[in-house]
Specification:
- This protein is of the alpha+beta class.
- The chain is 18% helix and 51% strand.
- Strands 1-2-3-4-5-6-7-8 form an eight-stranded antiparallel barrel.
- The protein is globular, with a radius of gyration of 14 Å.
- The relative contact order is 0.18.
Amino acid sequence: MKKILIISTLLLLFAACNNYKTDDLYGSWTSEKVDLTFNKDKTMQCRLGPSEFSGRYRLFGNSVELINSDEKVIGTIAIKSLKNDSLVVDILQFSSNLYTLVRKTK
């Protein structure tokens, strides 16, 4: 029981530690190498270089976990900042990869 309480507290703490409003994340973001679309229903589309996939996402504080249509986690994105129409993310692979994306306008 004590472990469940500790884990619950940590999850709430991480959820409260984001540096952006969730509603600001919704929409399509683009850069030369990366395109991301986050929908309110927790579905997403992603292009990383030549690779494209869709699925869903899960938010953990400043991290976004990308989950493909086979329900496998395919990556984690750390949100460094989200201000106005500029999203700076760190795509965690073998090393830190910072990208600045801009909001797509229709």
